[in-house]
Amino acid sequence: xxxxxxxxxxxxxxxxxIVVAGLxxxxxxxxxxxxxxxxxxxxxxxxxxxxxxxxxxxASIGFxxxxxxxxxxxxxxxxxxxxxxxxxxxxxxxxxxGAPWE
Amino acid sequence: MTTIAAGPPRVAGLDRxxxxxxxxxxxxxxxxxxxxxxxxxxxxxxLAYSLTFLQSYPFAGIEWLSPGRVRMLHTNGLAYGFIANAxxxxxxxxxxxxxxxxxxxxKLSWLIFVxxxxxxxxxxxxxxxxxxxxxEWGETPVWIDPVAVLGLLLVGANMLTPVIRFKGPMxxxxxxxxxALVWTAxxxxxxxxxxxxxxxxxxxxxxxxxxxxxLVGLFVTPIGWGxxxxxxxxxxxxxxxxxxxxxxxxxxxxxFYPLNGIHHFLYTPIPMFLQHGAxxxxxxxxxxxxxxxxxxxxxxxxxxxxxxTNLPIRWFYVGMVFYFTTCLQCAFQVTLTFQRIIHFSDxxxxxxxxxxxxVFGFWILGMMTYLFPxxxxxxxxxxxxLNSWHFWLSAIGMLVMVLDLTMAGLVQGFAWDALMxxxxxxxASTPFWLVRTYAGGAMILAQFxxxxxMVKTASMGRNGAAVSxxxxxxxxxDV
Lengths: 102, 479
Known about the structure:
The structure holds two protein chains of two kinds.
Chain A: H1 2-38, H2 47-72, H3 81-97
Chain B: E1 2-3, E2 21-23, H1 25-52, H2 67-99, H3 106-128, H4 145-165, H5 172-198, H6 201-236, H7 243-256, H8 272-300, H9 306-309, H10 311-333, H11 336-342, H12 346-375, H13 384-417, H14 422-463, E3 472-473, E4 476-477
Antiparallel strand pairs in B: 1-2, 3-4
Helix pairs in contact in B: 1-2, 1-3, 1-14, 2-3, 2-4, 2-6, 2-12, 3-4, 4-5, 5-6, 5-7, 6-12, 7-8, 8-10, 10-12, 12-13, 13-14
């Protein structure tokens, strides 16, 4: 019981530490981004400020949707099952092919 | 060919009832042969280029074989000839077996194979003719780019069809393959078209930075890990330690990797928020990588003897150790403090070799060691001893090269930082460059031994001869 309480304290402390550090990092990057975008002296066009970020969001947004789709379709319901199914399929394929290494 | 027998489905969850070849093994074999051919050519180009640093370049005075062009032949040959071909072969083997559905079309597979070889050959000719595009790792001449994108889209259609038709929760390898097939076409388009036609100056530098690293992280890495998650369990005959953890690794890669590339251009006019963002994302990726490594080594627990008795497993796990090393290196070297010293030095060259040869090269060679006898119809390798020599020469050569170039990078970096006279720094670098050439020579010799072994094994396969000292022993491959 004591051990579990100790583990919980570690997890909560680590979570707070990571979230606070992450929020600070993200916040300061966002602030720099806004400043760079609104800087009147930036290079003409200014695409280079925006395009890499846009590229990241385009790549990530697809994966956000894929993640949501996967969760809704039960891909993570029995999360360990695919590893056993895969080995079973492989075993049967090798057996059917009469593989000498079987 | 591996087939599923006629009649009702034999595997739970299968609706496949026809007797059709599941894996076109000839396509896989052809990809491996093409891959190894380009591998040898690219390695020889690298060896020739390394001689430039020793004032002994063999093609001095021949414009189309000038060192700059031969260097691009080395890098592009490895990326698109060796790695891409081997991965396409690996996908043609693994995807149908993971989904129990064959690829969209056999004819399309052959068409892609032929077109891809033409693309790689045209790239080589274009580079030697001096038509390189000014994009690092994207030097393919501009007239090839549209064909390459079309080829990548066809690969996606061919490979994703069985994955989409697959019902039920997917194994982690398939997640990685989906991501790679989608990302590669997008990455290639971004890196080869945006800087060429629409964005110039520093802006194109930012895009090229993304392209260079995304090519490694969003094309090579997901296919490489996808294949490892497939081959390691089937060879060890035990499931991966935690499928849940493997998915953490996959989704971590998906969300942390795409912004990494700008760490190639630290201390440039690219806005600092992008440079800092890339540094943070790179360090975050190291944490993701750790989950993957923990998973694979936990899988090996209780089967550690396989590292000694099973050569493909040894290739895979040594590659994983190199992978962890290179990512750990990455987490440090992307910081501004490290960059101040190592930028433009041979440290970076050592890092690149560790990634391309030490990691993905090792995984590919392990995959070939495992599959080649099966593909040529032999019951094992012609010589286990040659295979062993192949491994040790490659591994020792790689290790020596990386240590040597890392030390060279530190010497150069600190010398430049101390404003030492340029010629003096060249003199200090020469012994390191000599060792690098010898290490490369050992690695190339290893590949020729493997080539000889492959030829003899293939001829035995054709003759249906039995193999002395064969690879089969209690489900494991003797080395």
